[in-house]
Amino acid sequence: MIRQQSGLLAYAFLGLLLFVIFPLTLDPFRLNLMGKYLAFGFVAIGIVLTWGYTGILSLGQGIFFGLGGYMMAMFLKLEASAPELPDFMVWSSVEQLPLWWLPFKSAAATLILIVVLPVVIALPFAFAIFKKRVGGVYFAIVTLSLALTMTVLIVGQQGYTGGANGITDFKTFLGWDILGDRAKLVLYFIEITLLVLAMFLCGFIIRSRLGKILIAIRDREDRVRFSGYDTAAVKAFVFCIAAVLSSIGGALYVLQVGMIAPGVVGVVASVEMVIYAAVGGRLSIPGAVFGAILIGFSKSYLSETFPETWLFFLGAVFILVVLAMPNGLASVADRFMLRLMLRNPPSRKQ
Amino acid sequence: MQVFNGISLFTILLLMALGLAIVFGQMGVINMAHGELMALGAYVTYFTSRFFASHLPGWMDIYLFVAIPLAFGVTFLGGYLLERGFIRWFYNRPLDTLLATWGLSLILQQAYRTFFGAQEVNVPLASWLSGAWNVTENIQLPLNRIFIIGLTAVVAVGVYLLLYKTRWGLAVRSVTQNRAMSEAVGINTARVDAVTFALGSGLAGIAGCAFTMIGSTNPGTGQMYIVDSFIVVVFGGVQSLVGTALSGFTIAQSQTTLEYLMSGSMARVTILLLVIVVLYYRPSGLFSSKVRA
Amino acid sequence: MSKITRRKFMQASGSVAAAGAATTLGLWPMRAFSQETVKLGLLHSLTGTIAIAEASLVEAEKLAIDEINAAGGVMGRQITPVVEDGASDNPVFAEKAKKLLERDQVAAIIGCYTSASRKAVLPVLNRAKGLLYYPTYYEGQEQDKYVIYPSQEATQSVVAAIEWMAKEKGKTFFLVGSDYIYPRTCNKIAKPTIARLGGKVLGEEYAPLGHTEFSSIINKIKAAKPDCIYSTVVGGSNVAFYKQLKAAGLDGTKQVLLSTVVSENEIEGIGKDNAVGYYACMGYFQSIKNPVNEKFVKAFKAKYGQDKVIGDPMQVAYNSVYLWKLAVEKAKSFDPEKVIAASSGLEFDAAEGKIRVHATNHHVWKKVRVGRARADGQFDIVWESPNLIEPNPFPKL
């Protein structure tokens, strides 16, 4: 009851914040940064679903974030450098566009691949690995090593991926200048609309019968299995949803930031993404988005204010959140709501 | 020669992973700040060498024998305080530990940067450790590597004896297997936890000290080693120290062999993928003996 | 609150941090004190993996700013440095550059170390028409309208270094580098140069960035027995590389090794005795003997401590501030377009000797030198290019 009320309130508040308050009060620079933080919100929602509700902790969400990001960047880069080869290929003496770059000449193919490719990769991987009952810490470390593998691969194959430089310097999306302030505003609204859709989708999953099964899997997987459910398939499904969300987030990140770098794929970025969800509350979808906004904002703000010592504060924030608020900001909001309702009781209730 | 390189890398991986194997394997604590404890050990070594250079220049050659126990002692103490004041609040929430210790690792890195400077520091190598042992014309075995191999052997045997031949080791193992039962038979589990964690940290300190001989000492040193350490421990099967050793050996030998055959980046990618494939077939590690839910 | 008290408050708080906080919160209008001072952005990694090399550049830049302020500022205005942390993360560099240009309205940015961070900043500069001085040697292949490159691009050091080695030390080479763009480009320049001189490349190896295990590469080197090793290993890897080379018996007395990235700063971390006898090719060495350098070294040590050493990028960072000042004074304007136009052909009597900004390509004419590391961590300069070398960022190979 309380949970639901505060949940609704959180949604309402978040909606107000995203659609009204931010666009009205933030200047283009801050709003663009907000767009960057919100791209991580997609990942965080996925983590709520996989970690909070299903108990799968992936420390490799950066892989899918990077996948989506790189796909979008490849498309934009091809558009920016057409008809010639992307500049980094020229430096690395790659003379012909590699075959696997070809689909990204088309915007439609790129957009489809951003959604489909994560599934194609995540589904067999997750299904196989959950079938083998690799779970908990092992799964976390496997995904962590995958994130590391992907970083090393990207940095090592610079003729094809841009290497440590990443892919940068693009200007237009299908001829539309994406760097101007107006374009950024449009992109921001596209992003938050998609974000709200993602939140509804996940909210729907959680409230459905499937959601109950997820929680049951998290709490006692063997019992669910004994009841005749194919838990590996269910887990793989949820993992795929999180992967797709991350990929979409990555693609939007590239549009907002104007570049992609191997750093967002790596271990540090992947762990940070989990922290976004943890700060917001791993059981709360709006909480995850709040977490992404809050940590993103703190990072920018603290490093601007204390460029030489900001990591002290950021580290302290992480510890404090985990120590004092095991269920993140959402639990604090819940408690607050509870107190509010106790103070002016039954008359409000039917 | 390649074989020697493999063995050398193996001892380095083992030294890195031993502390983690105890903290993570025996206690189930995912300590992301473990790498920073290694860095602490490295900095202790650095300051010891500085102290010798300025106060006891004549004894410079043996400063390492002071630095090793000192690095162990300082990180042991650090680990003890860390467990009492921090880690023990997270015992029932293993994944939260991961996040909290991540925050801790950020703070520690920044602390090293603020107090010791962002630049690398140089830890001098004792003169008797530089140079190589010329076995034949073409085969030269670097002395510092031989020293690390020896050090690792001593540390590994020490840990083995401690865990399997002492009463305290028995207590540690029993707490790992069944906490409630151990408490019931009168083991002070809280103290066992603290000392176990401290021991794991102390081993990280020794590792950090040894790495000053071959690598760079800077505020970010710890992060370079932490993921590899986790991979070694998990690959070997979390609860088995022997598994950790064998896994370190397997990874080291394959890595040196592959590095000789292909580029460094590709060798690393191949190794990581191999680890993942093996974990797929042996979900609880290559050398785990028992299967538990 | 009048303008004066606001400014006084700023000075009293005395820190860039407070100014940053204030503008961030939007409490003060952005150009509140732009009449008396001019802001200069200093954008480097103060945290993260690259901080090892990059953090010290800020010190050199601040020294130059202090000196200029003490001498009356630029066109009568005091310079206020605004320090930002790029956190060794390319997108963060872009974010901070944007912040510096749009919110702080800095007149120019001195910043970046890795090419990756510079590439990330370029689109921001072009959008906001902001000016960047990039104080690090790099691989070339670039000439941006809004960037001045006061350090040596690859051909300036690589060609000189290879020619020197081939002439003095031998014609067979082994190329070792970290696996990213700078080493690969340098080697792309090195290989035809070696071929032109009748030399031979016996091997080319790359280690992943941050790698600390060089035994396999060293084995390959030992098997190949080259006359010279040309190294472009960067960062913390160097410490491992040099220590392991020495342990493997390939120390500076037995093996010729030349690096275009190891300056005095790196030697501090590598260890003086591990680097003894190896060579480096740089524009600047702390041991250069001329009055300007003596004054520079003295001022730096007085400000930051007697045990500090100064490497090539730090000196260039220091030069960058002066190059900007001179260009502003020549242009009589802080407008980036005019400053860039005025930079063309600008000469500066730097600690490394005279440098001259190229008429068209934004790089600088400069001398390069080969130094041999001594036991005290300094370099004996064994060769110096007779003339200023023309920058050629887009070499035809």
UniProtKB/TrEMBL annotation, chain B:
Compartment(s): Cell membrane
GO BP annotations listed: amino acid transport
Topology term for the membrane: Multi-pass membrane protein
Keywords carried by this UniProt record: Amino-acid transport, Cell membrane, Membrane, Transmembrane, Transmembrane helix, Transport
Family matches, as InterPro entries: ABC_transp_permease, ABC_UrtB_bac, BCAA_transport_permease
Chain segments annotated as transmembrane: 6-25, 62-82, 146-164, 194-214, 226-248, 260-281
One annotated GO molecular function: transmembrane transporter activity
GO terms under cellular component: plasma membrane
Domain of life from the UniProt record: Bacteria
Similarity section: Belongs to the binding-protein-dependent transport system permease family. LivHM subfamily.
Matching PANTHER family: ABC TRANSPORTER PERMEASE PROTEIN, BRANCHED-CHAIN AMINO ACID TRANSPORT SYSTEM PERMEASE PROTEIN LIVH
Entry protein name: Urea ABC transporter permease subunit UrtB
Gene for this chain: urtB
UniProtKB/TrEMBL annotation, chain C:
Domain of life: Bacteria
Organism for this UniProt entry: Noviherbaspirillum cavernae
A Pfam family matched in the record: Peripla_BP_5
One record GO biological process: amino acid transport
Name of this chain's protein: Urea ABC transporter substrate-binding protein
Primary gene name: urtA
Record lineage: Bacteria, Pseudomonadati, Pseudomonadota, Betaproteobacteria, Burkholderiales
UniProt-listed NCBIfam families: TAT_signal_seq, urea_ABC_UrtA
